[in-house]
């Protein structure tokens, strides 16, 4: 089943509000075997709404409209629906009773606008809204289902979960859809695509691959469509096993897992503790670690050693090392990691020092140059990276890369 979402409201088109309804609906529909073909936003205008519905009807099995169902004059969706389905507004007694009961419980007097909300298109099946005053409306035309719901998020969600999805599950049109996301870190999108090109080319026809890059990671989403959900899970799982053989060092988790969660889990499982010394990342690594509930079990703490004086006084970095190699160097970041590990009594330590930008770079050390060190009970490693000239992305990428290096070290323990 293919679906289109039409959001109605000038407030979306002028940027006054963000359309979160479509994202939520799309996620829920996909989980229930309904493919979202298109998302469209239109003005509070009957002609524009009708035009969008005509276009959607040609391509979609299901069209869901959100917005424009309140008690005020600018809520015109019902009138547009009447025109489109050649019907008239009629009084719906049960809806009016629901509205009266809601207002009675809140000690609010009804007015004409509230009563008008019980005027509904005669051709629709009314979907009872138990959490609001505007009901949903279900229409069928030329093998296409049209459903209109309020734009208020909690009312829309109630109707989707309790009225719309239960009806759609019984009509036999929805297919099984399964999504699995592989989280990778350490390879740019283009290099990753090159490494897995043959694997991607040989994927079964019913599995689609999407690259979802961001400063934190490159996510690989596999989407499978078929008739048997369990078979799709087995099929996708087999392809992921093949992928793991190609890029074992770069896969760190699945779906919504974060590197903070993964490294935290490894530390907890192995009974190890962690300390952090940050310069260019400014505390962001500590933020990623402490965003995970229960991180106090393994995280000793961190030092944000932005100045050389702090590097020397708190972490024990040598003045001679700083003079000979500069703050952004393998030698300094190594001493930072060793110093914070000793000072905080941790099993492992992570340290960063770099040039986040946009200024401060040199020909020898351009903006984006970052040194990362991981100090453990057995050895200390350092590695150099050049991330680019965007300060915010440099901080994020440096922090993610540091946790990825830590993850690899922990895997070897």
Automatic annotation (TrEMBL):
<feature type="domain" description="MoaB/Mog">
    <location>
        <begin position="4"/>
        <end position="171"/>
    </location>
</feature>
<dbReference type="InterPro" id="IPR036653">
    <property type="entry name" value="CinA-like_C"/>
</dbReference>
<dbReference type="Pfam" id="PF18146">
    <property type="entry name" value="CinA_KH"/>
</dbReference>
<dbReference type="InterPro" id="IPR001453">
    <property type="entry name" value="MoaB/Mog_dom"/>
</dbReference>
<comment type="similarity">
    <text>Belongs to the CinA family.</text>
</comment>
<dbReference type="InterPro" id="IPR008135">
    <property type="entry name" value="Competence-induced_CinA"/>
</dbReference>
<protein>
    <recommendedName>
        <fullName>CinA-like protein</fullName>
    </recommendedName>
</protein>
<dbReference type="Pfam" id="PF02464">
    <property type="entry name" value="CinA"/>
</dbReference>
<dbReference type="Pfam" id="PF00994">
    <property type="entry name" value="MoCF_biosynth"/>
</dbReference>
<dbReference type="InterPro" id="IPR041424">
    <property type="entry name" value="CinA_KH"/>
</dbReference>
<dbReference type="InterPro" id="IPR008136">
    <property type="entry name" value="CinA_C"/>
</dbReference>
<dbReference type="InterPro" id="IPR036425">
    <property type="entry name" value="MoaB/Mog-like_dom_sf"/>
</dbReference>
<dbReference type="InterPro" id="IPR050101">
    <property type="entry name" value="CinA"/>
</dbReference>
